[in-house]
Amino acid sequence: MFSPWYGWSGRRQPDNHVCINVATYGPGGRFSMTDRGSAALRQTRHSLTVGPSSLHWQGDRLVIDINEISAPPVVSRVRGQITVMPAALTGVELPLTPDGTHVWRPFAPTCEIDVDLDAPGWRWQGHGYFDANFGTRALEQDFDYWTWGRFPTSQGSTCFYDATRRDGSVLAAAFRFSRDGSATAITAPPKAPLPRSLWQVRRETRADAGFRPRQVQNMLDAPFYSRSAVQTCLDGIATTGVHEALDLRRFRIPLLKPMLAMRVPRRAHWSFD
């Protein structure tokens, strides 16, 4: 979605620009995202392989095998396995534009995960999610700004999707997901501001009236994008989840793609042999 090489190609042949992005946070955190050519891609009904890393369904769980090299400033191998165990799979799709050029697909908003990476402190278990965005146009063609948040609850998960489209219209969607995968559209609580990111990306989320959300952990900070762990309050209960803010006006700045290429190298001729 954010590969500069794909953008420079004129968005032709998406299967010739495939990546598996791996990011770890905290002390010793790493970021890896290598753009590879079509020779590095293998797909079946139950698996996706991109170069030395792969995702495959094993019964009711998604197993992710990682073997990547992290980007500067800390270049090292990121290797190991992540197992995602959904409570249930949903059938929900949310069109993000009236003509359906962009769709959010929350496959499993409520999951348990097991992380076992080959580095000290990178082995843990916890809660997670599995979702995807699909589109037939570039995000920056249709959007100026969006925020997204997924927050665990005792019943499952609650997700918020807020966006400002380039034509000035807005999206304000809120869903409550039960552990059985059922989804209910809910009235979103009021917007609440968050402090700007280190790159001064504007941020906001949803919270009970009068509650001021706060960042618990910075995860990923870029000139156009912020990901963080945020604590908010929903229906009187505090919860900490993943929050994203995306400024696509900044992403449209021509200088940004060369900056991204420093973090997203291209290996066009990688092959399985």
Features:
273 residues, mainly beta, 8-stranded antiparallel beta sheet, 7-stranded antiparallel beta sheet, 4 helices, 7% helix, globular
**Helical residue percent band:** under 10%
What proportion of the residues form beta strands (DSSP E)? over 45%
Distance between the termini: 27 Å
What is the averaged pLDDT score? 95
What is the tally of beta strands?
Answer: 21
Low-confidence stretches: none
Rg from Cα: 18 Å
Report the major sheet.
Answer: 8 strands, antiparallel
Give the helix/strand class: mainly beta
So what's the overall shape? globular
**What is the chains' assembly state?**
single chain
Helix and strand succession? HEEEEEEEEEEEHEEEEEEEEEHHE
Question: What's the layout of helices and strands?
Answer:
Elements: H1 4-8, E1 22-23, E2 31-32, E3 35-36, E4 41-44, E5 47-50, E6 53-58, E7 61-69, E8 77-86, E9 94-95, E10 102-117, E11 123-135, H2 139-142, E12 143-152, E13 156-165, E14 170-178, E15 183-185, E16 191-194, E17 203-206, E18 214-222, E19 225-234, E20 237-247, H3 248-251, H4 256-261, E21 266-267
Parallel strand pairs: 3-21
Antiparallel strand pairs: 1-2, 4-5, 5-6, 6-7, 7-8, 8-10, 9-10, 10-11, 12-13, 12-20, 13-14, 14-15, 16-17, 18-19, 19-20
